[in-house]
Amino acid sequence: MQRVFAPLPDGVYPANDTPAYRSSARRAPREPAVLAPHTASETLGPRPGAERLVAGLGDLTRPAGARGEALGQRLLVHGRVTDERGRPERRALVEVWQANAAGRYLHDGDRHDAPLDPNFTGRGAVLTDDDGRYEFLTIEPGVYPWGNHHNAWRPRHIHFSLFGAAWATRLVTQMYFPGDPTLPFDPIFMGIADVAARERLVSHFDLERTQPDYALAFRFDIVLRGALDTPWEAPA
Asked: Which residue segments constitute the domains of the chain, with CATH numbers given?
């Protein structure tokens, strides 16, 4: 049986051509989208999973081969991945990547003059459990300049990539932090017109899961498809 997803309200996804996000003008499609109905390949086909994982990828503070621990405030990032009806997405692949505590990525294209951390790669991956839950131990990412406009700074964020029950539930998004003063000035975050959808990208501080004298906890729940869908990370 083919799954039928609830339609998304206008404004949940940013427009493909978002003028404030300058690079979207070069990437945005010039023609209207063509509807391609889902087939069994999209709804029931194989998905990446356990074969992509090795031990320890849920702990970004001590990557394989590192001689010490990553610098920065430790964070326990956790949450639940569900479908449009609130049912758990079991064994979903959840991948993350982020800047280090100084706001720099371990990537050749990052020319920010902040220091690199030899004990931090910024990459992790886990599978959700039978209740759709996941967790990562990481460090708080730094804010960094990105050249989109005058005095442009990207808020603290962690990138997420998810594969749900099928290719049709593929999601790439970003998790932000509550109270970040740069959020109202970020055209990627503000490119989502629907305020309620935008707020679904902001994590919640979790004192109960916070580990005394060790790590702050933030909860970030994710919905794959449906009216309460977690928005994609950016326009085209």
From this structure: 65-224 (2.60.130.10)
